[in-house]
Fold these 2 entries.
Entry 1:
Amino acid sequence: MNFRHATTEDVPEIIGVAERSWEHDYPGILTRETAREAVAEWYDTDRLELDAVAADTALVVAIDEDADEDRAGPVVGFLHGVVDDDTGTLLRVYVDPEQRGEGMGRALVEYAIDDFDTRGVERVEAMVLAANEPGNEFYESLGFELVQRATTTIGGEPHDENIYLKLL
């Protein structure tokens, strides 16, 4: 796999990975309608296009190693994060369900942490729904420590969320 910062041309493929991931990952947690509404809200095309060029955002894509690194797609995974002073926050990490199990998610997070480190970040936070057992196990396997529980709203419904921290 190759990793690079996303461009605005990658946005449709990022949204596709998000849609397939939410459909695959959350059927026991969210209704199909709620998942679709959340994807439409959280992965708004205009917002992602702005994030692709914003200096305080890390929008990183994983592309097939046979693809041209300088052109859009095919995106098979992505990480969306933000930097605020000395803290980098991993908002979302998704790998296309058909591409999982090969270490791509781990590599995306490591790429982002390296990027955060060059920006002076000292701590990295990550959030995941408490009911998403594979997501929680993923962050714990990367050395993140559960530091807080919070509530987030998805589709107008409250959901417990775990917040993880890793010091650099």
Entry 2:
Amino acid sequence: MKSRIFLFGIVLSLSVFVLLSCSEKKDAAASAAPTQGNVAETPFVVRVGVDSHAFSFQFRVAEQTGIFDKHNVDAELFTFSYGIDTINAAILGETDSAEAMDFAAASRFSESNKLRILATITTANPDGSHLYTRNDAIKTPSDLKGKRIGVQKATANEFLWARLFEKYNLKKEEVNHIYLGSNAELLAAYQSNEIDAFWVGADLEKAVNEIPSSRDIGNVSLAGYLQRGFLLLDADLIARNPAGVERFLKALDEATTFIKEKPEETARIAYEDLKLPVDAALKSIEAQNYELRLTQEDLDQITSVAEWSYANGLFRNKYNIKDYIDPVPLRNVLPDRVTVQ
């Protein structure tokens, strides 16, 4: 509906469009007005599942600045707690698109899953997440034995813990896992001393440092694993409208450039959409490397995650990850950023 209204405004007249574009958001849309060629195209309608953190910023920027409109993409955003939730929604047919970190994405592939990886859209920086504790007995990860940790089940956070345990010769059953459903729950549990340690992202770091006796043990380099985030789309939608999918990717690439060039404005959008404090949003942006690409290294990483998880009992399904990757749309749009064999 948003794109149809936009097109009607163009047809009506440029002067009316300017008058209707008095708000800051509509000014941004006006600056991103579609070309004559795009006007003749049918809007690409897509239901997009996004998480409630920095992983979703590319989609929110594309919506709020009019970039989706510019590329004639009629995108409706549905917000969930984590990336894994966006995948579950897409599998159930509630959305068409999902975004998830490697472990979450790899955990859901099966014969019945029609989602296909189109691109890597972000890579975490090592300093984007730190291991915090307020228990004086915990000096290094080895001291987590017998302690209570906050875990976001079925997310990349759970995989991060598993890799940390492997590196420090800990067995999963030796550590008391407290499964919690959101960052807010993790913070509350930490504040009330219900957990001894958890991984803290940039958006929570300020609040955690204000808690007495809270200490930073180290960043994710402790586990030797850096998350990569992927964009997934329903295979049937890709087959029905390949040109629309390409416009969708172009819009996200433009939004990625916007984030890099205008982090303060991106943080303001995050505040408007998520009520995330601007300073926390800026830290979250610094914690991510936003880029649309699909490289062999990306494929090797998610393959490694899937194989390790299967070998260690985290996954039940064994499959070939290549069956769930479609590099064609991105290769058509950004050929220099696709090196998947």
